[in-house]
Design goal:
Blueprint lengths: L10 E4 L4 E3 H4 L4 E7 L4 H17 L4 E7 L11 H11 L5 E3 L4 H6 L3 E2 L1 E6 L4 E5 L17 H10 L14 E2 L4
Parallel strand pairs: 3-4, 4-5
Antiparallel strand pairs: 1-2, 1-5, 3-7, 6-9, 7-8
Length: 176
C-alpha cells in the first residue's frame, strides 16, 4: 500500500469466535492494523509495547487489531487454536484476527511481522512500518524514535503524520 490509499476491506475470524470487518475496528481518530503472529521474536519483543499503546490510545479514538496470516500447516504455533490461547493469555485489548487465506495480507502488501499500517479517520493510509527504532530482539535498548505513537499523536491532533514510512523489521510472513 502507498501512503494516502484507502484501507482495503476485510472480513476475518477473531480469536473470540466473532467475524470482524474493517469498520468493526475503526477508531474515530485512527485505525491501526498490525500484521502479527505468535512465534516471531520481533513480535514477541514488541507485544507488550503494542498492548500498552492500544490501552493508552483506545480512549483517544484509536482502534486496533492484530492479523495473523502465517501458514499454520508449516508453523503450527501460528494456528487458530494457538492464536486463541495467545490472545487469552496476553489479555489482548484488541481483536486478534486469522487471515487463513492470506488474502488480506496480500491486499495490504504486508511482508513482515510485526508490520504496522495506520489509517486516518477517513481510513486513508497515514503511516506504514515499524513500532519504533528498537529492533534488536536479542539485546533490547531504549527506543529513540517512537514511530507508531508519533503517528498516532499527529492524527489525534489533526496534524499530518510527520514520518509516514519506516522499514518494518521482523520475520517474513510465512506464505503457503
Amino acid at each position: 500500500m502507498k501512503i494516502g490509499e484507502h484501507a482495503p476491506f476485510f472480513d476475518l475470524l477473531g480469536t473470540d469466535g466473532r467475524r470482524y470487518r474493517l469498520e468493526n475496528i475503526q477508531g474515530a481518530k485512527a485505525t491501526v492494523v498490525v500484521f502479527s503472529c505468535n512465534h516471531c521474536p520481533y513480535v514477541i519483543m514488541n507485544e507488550e509495547r503494542l498492548i500498552a499503546i492500544a490501552r493508552k490510545y483506545a480512549p483517544l479514538g484509536v482502534g486496533m487489531a492484530f492479523i495473523n496470516a502465517n501458514d499454520a500447516a508449516n508453523y503450527p504455533e501460528d494456528s487458530y487454536a494457538s492464536m486463541k490461547e495467545r490472545a487469552r493469555d496476553k489479555n489482548y485489548p484488541f481483536p486478534y484476527l486469522h487471515d487463513e487465506t492470506q488474502q488480506t495480507a496480500k491486499v495490504y502488501g504486508a511482508t513482515h511481522t510485526p508490520q504496522i499500517f495506520v489509517f486516518d479517520r477517513t481510513l486513508h493510509l497515514a503511516y506504514a512500518g515499524g513500532v519504533d527504532d528498537d529492533n534488536n530482539h536479542s539485546a533490547r535498548k531504549t527506543a529513540e524514535h517512537h514511530y507508531l505513537t508519533d503517528a498516532l499523536d499527529d492524527l489525534i491532533a489533526d496534524r499530518p503524520v510527520r514520518l509516514a514510512e519506516t522499514r518494518a523489521l521482523g520475520c517474513t510472513i510465512k506464505w503457503k
